[in-house]
DNA sequence: TTGCAAAGCGGAACGTTGTTCCGTATGTTT
DNA sequence: AAACATACGGAACAACGTTCCGCTTTGCAA
């Protein structure tokens, strides 16, 4: 395995109190900077905002991607939990799928540049890539399977592919008002429907 | 206008013979390096391949994006000319649109990282962005309008939006074999169809 | 309370990018 | 052939992610 303990103790609480404090500070600072300057903001900016050195950032988050994952962890979780809930509350699986995809797209679109970095093939973002997709793909997969069983959509579409597609459609959405990412996502989902 | 003579004399022939020779060499070198290392290849690599200094690259192509545009100019042109042709040869405008989109997607997918750079919001790539879309959007627009008039698709979709959507779907297509960009593009086009 | 290893910190330093600058070389023109 | 504009090379700059290491702080043990 190339990933050493990646999923195991990514946000293990540091032993010392000051370190724990810094980790919190860093997360808050990163969240603030991400909102202000986008997810691509320089690590130095985040360190400055938190009032620490760059080394400290890297002590807590081995790579920029880990920081991004940590900041958005809660929202990823919320998105994951929304899947089963929608499946129950919606009249048809296809509608649940559609709503869930909207949720996912909204999440990506509102974070400047998140989608771009999610779909980047830069090896440095593998962790991010994995964390997002590993958590959400099964959720999406269940929605997909349900809709498929109900005969509402065609067979054989991988959750991974759909999520990457949606993620891609959201790239650059908020920095270009001539491009309507949500509309494209709706179109994609519409294309899913298979009258059989 | 912020763009000074961008469309006017982008590839104006240099006065001196060695300069003209170098421009050719550079285009060839860039094409080779793009194939080998993708469109994101460092300018230094291209300069090295061509056997010139980096300054020379920038003398001929003010920015990396201009070089990319120059290299793919022919294919953009071909894609642009295919539009009207398809409109004539296809039984229905919608089918012409679908085929044209496939063409466009194929073009993007086969060039490593082209799509990513096309849809980047990095200001440095405005030139590229503009050259691609300014040339192709009218073509796409005509196909869209024809399909719309024929009642095959819903109204009010901008060519720009569709092209960015397709471009986005193609990001990272060739560096991730679990992701099937062409399939997503097909889905998007399918979603376009409006039974009305 | 005091001492002392371990844990953590800051920011200089490194490697890689795109891009600019300028002294030098080379066509072109008269 | 001399003079001049044009073009060249590559060093130099700025911005980035990341690493490294000497110093500081902390928490535990005596």
From TrEMBL, chains A, B:
Region (Disordered): 1-21
Keywords: DNA-binding, Transcription, Transcription regulation
SUPFAM superfamilies: Homeodomain-like, Tetracyclin repressor-like, C-terminal domain
Molecular function (Gene Ontology), one example: transcription cis-regulatory region binding
Pfam families found in the cross-reference section: TetR_C_43, TetR_N
InterPro entries on file: Homeodomain-like_sf, HTH-type_TetR-like_transc_reg, HTH_TetR, Tet_transcr_reg_TetR-rel_C_sf, TetR_SbtR-like_C
PROSITE patterns for this protein: HTH_TETR_2
Residue span, HTH tetR-type domain: 20-79
Bias-annotated ranges (Basic and acidic residues): 10-21
DNA-binding residues (ranges): 42-61
Highest taxon above the source species: Bacteria
Transmembrane region(s): none
Organism lineage: Bacteria, Bacillati, Actinomycetota, Actinomycetes, Kitasatosporales
Protein's name according to its UniProt entry: TetR family transcriptional regulator
